[in-house]
Amino acid sequence: MKKTLALVTALGLISSSALVCATPKEDQERFQHYFETRFPKVTKNDFGNGVYAIDAVARENWEAIEQFPPYDPAVSNGETMWKTPFANGKTYKDCFPDGPAIGAKYPYWDKKRSMVITLPLAVNECRTANGEKPLKYAKGPITDILAYIAFKSRGQITNVVIPADDPKALAAYEKGKHIYFARRGQLNFSCASCHAGNSGNRLRTEILSPAFGQTTHWPVYRSKWGDMGTLDRRFAGCFKQVRAKPYKAQGEEYRDLEYFLTYMNNGLPLNGPASRK
Amino acid sequence: MITGRRDLTVSAVALAITAIAFGATAAESPNGDIAAGKAIAMDRAKGNCIACHVLPGGASPGAIGPALVAMKSRFPTKEALTKQIWDPTIRNPDTVMPPFGKHAILTEKEFNAVVDYIWSL
């Protein structure tokens, strides 16, 4: 508990300390320092492996699963999607000329539109601009195209930018930060309740994963789901677990949350898609 | 969303604390309530105390909160324990323990049974 309080205080969320407004860069340094101090044996890059960085038994199972990765079919389906022209003859490449290895470009702040653009949103905007139906955000075909892009983006470094010349970008970051630390739902948990101050602790038999590293590897094949899911799906699952009503997939709230959380993870290599319990 | 309901229930909560703390059921707890309370404490969809606390006879407990043993040495009165389970954020605003009474996570009957059980430990 003292440690949760330490992080909450460090990030300026307690009213008395909010007088001193931390910059995103200061938040990020404190956030990463918090987890590196809490888990001194974990190398920085290993944080991207989630709970497997801190749970030796689970890691053995996970490494065995990774021998035949359960996300492989999604990657190959996604490659087919990438290469198959839309009805108008264009392809994803026309929307993403640098693609498919574009993972580290997202999420980013679009100054003209005054909003955070995530990769799933960009994928659907590409589709609708070319006369195709948008894909549902939680699961299904969107995980295929995202898995292919993630696979091709492996090794790129998380590098989210909060442009200093647009106060609205900072406001979106602050909104995401607030969502991360606000308590919600009947069970009264914040994201940080479990994944900051209690990361590494056991909730019944499960070890809670650290927040540092949680954005590097989407989409994920999750054994609990028995299929692939996006970060949107995971966010909604967390909200339901604390008995709160999830926000709309790819609505402003979750995009801002992704913006904040990915910024906290700057410097970590992308390693998606991944398999998780 | 639950938060919408919170304001409406504030006054009811104050009344309910009084009722639970001083009601007739609190003083005389038949063993049936203790057994029912234990079942609720172990039930993942109900109290789920075992997710975070060591409980006597509970398999694979979590390790977020303290072991629930020797409760009478840790709480001066049953009323104090009742208040703690009703809304632990009063004593510690930063606790992660859910407010089982305040947020109506348990029904009044279930809540009373859990208090009886925990107080017996």
Please explain how this structure is put together:
The complex is a heterodimer of chains A (277) and B (121). Chain A is mainly alpha-helical and 277 residues long. Chain A has 2 domains: 2-68 and 163-276, Cytochrome Bc1 Complex, Chain D, domain 2; 72-152, Cytochrome Bc1 Complex, Chain D, domain 2 (Orthogonal Bundle). Chain A is built from 11 helices and 7 strands. In chain A, helix 4 crosses helix 7 and helix 8 (167-181) crosses helix 11. The longest helix of chain A has 15 residues, at 24-38. Chain B has 6 helices and no strands. Chain B is mainly α and 121 residues long. Chain B has helices at 2-22, 24-27, 31-42, 71-74, 78-86, 108-119. Chain B has one domain: Cytochrome Bc1 Complex, Chain D, domain 2, CATH 1.10.760.10. Chain A binds chain B through residues 1, 4-5, 8, 184-189, 193-194, 197-198, 201-205, 243-245, and chain B through 1-3, 50-52, 60-64, 89, 92, 94-96, 98-99, 103-105.
Structural class of chain B: mainly alpha
* Biggest interface and residues each: A-B, 22 and 21 residues
In this structure, how is the largest beta sheet of chain B organized? none
CATH homologous superfamily title of chain B: Cytochrome c-like domain
How helical, in percent, are the residues of chain A?
40-55%
- Stretches of chain A where pLDDT is under 50 for at least 5 consecutive residues are 14-19
